[in-house]
Amino acid sequence: MRTSPTRYGRRRAGAAAGSGITAVLTAAALLLPTTSAHADTAPSPAGEIPATATPALVTGLDEAVAADGNAADAARGHLAAKRDRYHIANPGKDLAVAGTEREGGRETVRLRQRYQGIPVLGGEYLVRMEKKAGERAVTGTSGRYFTQLDLDTVEPAVSEKTAIDRAVAAVAAQLRTGPLTRPAQVGEQAAPLTGAFQGLTVLPQGKGVLTRHITVTGAGPVDGPPVKQEVYVDARSGFPVMQYSSIKTFGAPGTATGTATDGTATADESTTTAQQLVVKGTGTRYDGQKAEVNLYQGSDGVYQMIDYSKRPASTPFSGALLSTYDARGREASAASGRWPSGIQTFRSATTDLGEDFTNSGAIDAHWGAGKVYDYYFSKFGRDGLDGKAGFVNSLVGVVNNGHPFNNAFWDGAKMVYGQGGGDYRTFSADTDVVGHEMTHGVIEHTANLVYVGQSGAMNEAIADYFGNAIDVEANGLSMDDPDTALLGEDLCTTMAPRDCALRDLDDGATTQDDFIGVTYRGDNGGVHLNSTIFSGALWDIRQNLDDDLADKIVYRALSAYMTPLDGFTDGREAVLAAARELGATKGQLATVSKAFDDHGIAEDWEKDLGVDAKTLMAGVNIAATGIGAGNGTYAVSRSNASGEEPYSVWIGRTDGRGTPQQVSGNTGNYQVYADTDGETVVWAEYGPTSIAIKARAVSGGVVRTVANAGISAASLAVDGDDIVFTDFDPRFGLEHVVHFDMKTGIRTAVDQGRGDRATALPSVRDGKIAYAKVWAQPDGYHLGAEVFDIATGTTTLMPGDTTRTRGVGQTAITDDGVFWLRDADIADGGKASLERAGFDGSNPVTVLPEAIDAPVYGYSLTASDDAVTLTSLSPATSWDNATLPKLYQVAPDGKGGVKRVSCNRGDQVHASADTGKRVLWLDGTTGSTDLVMRDRPAGTC
Length: 941
Hints:
By secondary structure, the chain is of the alpha+beta class. Helices cover 18% and strands 33% of the residues. Strands 15, 19, 20, 21, 23, 24, 25 and 26 form an eight-stranded mixed β-sheet that branches. Strands 1, 4, 5, 6, 7, 8 and 9 form a seven-stranded antiparallel β-sheet that branches. A five-stranded antiparallel β-sheet has the order 10-46-47-48-49, with no helix packed on it.
């Protein structure tokens, strides 16, 4: 018997950790609520992986269990009989059956942990058995069962409504990080953000965190992309401690005859067999090849893209297995987590499917779905994505805000393919894209790897691996052709395959050279960015072993060994264990090990990553709460090593001298969005029924409650007695900048809280507040930067064409006046100019023009009297180091050029200027959320 009791034990880890747990559960650090006064996004946290006495991996068993009865009872009976080994006190009560996978005589029972009846995120344990000759024996176990949990699960202090409101506000803020922009204009297809309560969930951080799980859906406020965010709101204080997108991207039913209310076709007679419903049709794929597809002829004589052929011939009619729907012109946001009303399956008067079926991508989508089903059924005996002959629906041709949607995604229930445009065909045009998206469905019904951080990167990697394998087999490609490793290479209308491809499984990516400690800002913690490190190892295995054996090893690892929070090193262990179980030779096992070694996937690989900045505080374990700095002092939130402790506020010297001090108590509430001017520190305290604005002198003294916010309070900034922050109005889905005078107690919304305007990204100094503003006019929305005079209550709009401005970024006030970012050119991919003017709008100067040759994409800024530091975030047209947020610095007059602040390869976010050229930020390079500092720019990198 082989056991690995420390697979999830106490080794240091971060977003890149081998177990992946801190990449997900302390993903609090990867949230993106509204930016702080000096800020942008937050990197992934570090922390100790929760201890557990339950072994992570046990192999080599041959222990008899009851052969009669179901597999789940036998599995739980085994765990109960071996309590001294597994330390699971009551398997019958604390482990719910998630399903049983069967491959020949092998049975794998997947059990999900419950704590006092509440599901534990990522808590899954697997029991593998073999049944033959009327006997059943356990051969091994693996997974995560968190034995350290010890928390109160009484009725949450936070109401369901409060949790939903705060979750929606957090998602709205995440979607609007960076410049303030115009609302999306998608007419009747616009989908406002709404939240739905999914139940209580325990996050297994430390002794556990009880949360309300909210799913937020709708359309993004900037350009209308589909939104489906999973948000976990702390049940004690109401702070959204974790959120991530559950839409797995690749980069209802109709009412006509033959369509039922569940999205599947109905037969004319209930006794009709599946095979009698199959009609052969022919069409042409995008690549010009003729393809035979299975259709269904309804009672009206029309042929529909519905395939009953996957049902056994003797099976009575029970619904179509594969259906392909015409969703051309429908918004992607209306197809995410929902079913667009009125859509129908693609239809034809004849079985000869013409040019429209080719150009729409319907032929490729329907033909490809059949090939994917056949692959999983013939190779592994898997009947459909869920393994239970569940319906497989494909929606083809969605758009984004009326424009081409060059992407595809699995939303947990169906495949959705974007309508192409420009250089791209509709995204069903490449079989590996179809295989990739459908494999997300297989993953969801097996290991269900959480779509964040390393577990999310493995989710993408396995979807890429099988999507590519299916493409190779369905189209007769050779593994010896270097272009075979490309994904999405057939999507383009003009570009060559290697120029077109979205990823290359043979790109040689390694953890040492290519792993990026990335936030959830744009890629859910690096799910695409870091995926080829793992998929590259799998590709190497397929190249150097028999194709069929490699596929079986990876599938077995996915279905019988992996669990939701696994990271890269866990994935390595799972693949090796599956290879041993399937009888791999010593030489074949060496090939598998070498593939992972070559890609740097080995124990403790994270320790080799480093930074060029001074670390002021390592492993703060926080999420998107920002940092503040001023006059030699910083303020930052911090959690404990395991991440379950509600955040408290700490202050320290920006030069790193002395010992940081805790200024807020551990009350059970979350203390977040801290800022300081060097004299006073302020922060927001999230409680179950209210959000309080707190203040204390840096030198010491009493903590005071100076104000209260509504649904949220972010972007806090302080200067003397003046505090500013943004509040969220759920009635209109808008943010408003609020000023509070600590001396008089007067609270003022700079825009009067009106429903026809929004304000955000404030800064405050010397009695003036600067902010970005969007407001409605008869000719459409206008955008600009504005200054509010606290003494007089008057406002001054800064110079600039407010009709041409498409985005206004973070503001800053210095002794030179007001700085802000302005994006006027919609065609340059997000570049912004750095503008400056006097408080009264006089002497406007473009410090850095938008058309500057240097690759600076102004996303946010922070400024001292001596330097302006820009967060540059280039468009993520490809996932590499260059697309991550990086810091650049320039003099207030622009002279001397733009210089890199740091050459760290990971995310550099929440920048906060101190005095001189000193700047602090949260750095995610090593997979840990570290507070770091540089006194001067690095220059060039």
